[in-house]
Design goal:
two-stranded antiparallel sheet, seven-stranded antiparallel sheet, about 300 residues, alpha+beta
Length: about 300
């Protein structure tokens, strides 16, 4: 028999705040004292307890696992995480005010502990989630002259801000990639890359082929290729960045030159964000995408006409 304990809270994703408006979802949960075989996990029993002030968290999840094979810390974390995801779904089943926030189980995995209970009732500690802490303090002095000479761009600054406040790395990637797409819709981009892939004779041939299609979707798919230019996306993005004087960026102490391969990896990472089975490109997010978009925001902040062409 194994015993897993993990403190947790019920957190809320966001709250609605505006001029004269404040909206927040509170929740009062009554957990069952004990549940056997939750989510079809065999030979398991789950208990929920209100915190006894031992931890900072409000609740404690206690999982009893009666497996003949060995249970390790990885398996314990796996099961507890699945339970948290399911309970988060359940908590929102009757949430009628989701615009003011959605609920989720926030596990304190740092405090997760795994013990083995022997037949005589003696408890042996198998593993605790070992942890270390690192606190980095950034000292920032706001420059008055910089503020006075700065300009605001609605799309660029909004996407950057949304990425900064997003809790999850996939969300950060999504929002910050939108900054690159904003560049692709700029007047400067259209001016630089107006050389279409097809000439006039070829355009007429494509249009004639499209007219033969009885289905509107097929016709649209064929006509859509007329908007393509001779250069591929990664090449155009690199040239645009170079045009606005972004050819490299600093990563810690190193100056990193931006290459087509790096741009291709950013695009590949974006395309894989919501594909099942794809690994999340964490290194691309922090070591490539984020430094590049920081430089883009800085350039646009200092020059409001930069993307006007």
């Amino acid at each position: 028999m194994y015993r897993v304990t993990c403190p947790f809270d019920i957190s809320i994703s966001h709250k609605k705040v505006g001029i004269g408006i404040y909206g927040k979802n509170d929740i009062n949960v009554k957990f069952p004292e004990k549940v056997d075989s939750l989510l079809q996990f065999p030979n398991t029993t789950i208990e929920f307890q209100v915190n006894n002030d031992k931890y900072d968290n409000k609740y404690i999840l206690i999982l009893h696992i009666d497996y003949p094979e060995c249970c390790d810390i990885e398996l314990a974390v796996h099961i507890v995480t699945i339970i948290a995801k399911y309970l988060s779904f359940y908590l929102n089943k009757e949430n009628i005010n989701q615009r003011s926030g959605t609920y989720f189980i926030d596990l304190n995995l740092i405090e997760l502990k795994l013990n083995r209970i022997k037949e005589n009732g003696y408890c042996t500690n198998i593993a605790a989630s070992d942890s270390y802490g690192l606190i980095v303090t950034n000292f920032v002095t706001i420059d008055e002259q910089y503020l006075q000479s700065s300009h605001y761009n609605e799309n660029i600054h909004s996407f950057y801000f949304d990425g900064l406040r997003a809790n999850f790395e996939k969300s950060k990637y999504f929002h910050w990639f939108l900054i690159l797409e904003t560049l692709e819709h700029s007047a400067l981009y259209k001016k630089m890359f107006s050389d279409k892939l097809f000439d006039e004779t070829e355009k007429k041939a494509v249009c004639a082929l499209a007219e033969q299609m009885s289905d509107g979707t097929k016709k649209g798919a064929i006509l859509n290729i007329l908007s393509r230019t001779k250069e591929v996306r990664k090449t155009k993005m690199l040239k645009l960045l170079q045009n606005i004087d972004i050819a490299s960026y600093k990563l810690i102490k190193d100056e990193i030159k931006i290459t087509e391969e790096m741009i291709a990896n950013i695009i590949k990472g974006r395309n894989s964000l919501f594909h099942r089975g794809s690994d999340f490109p964490e290194e691309i997010l922090w070591d490539v995408l984020f430094p590049i978009v920081k430089k883009i925001v800085e350039k646009v902040t200092m020059n409001p006409d930069l993307l006007n062409g």
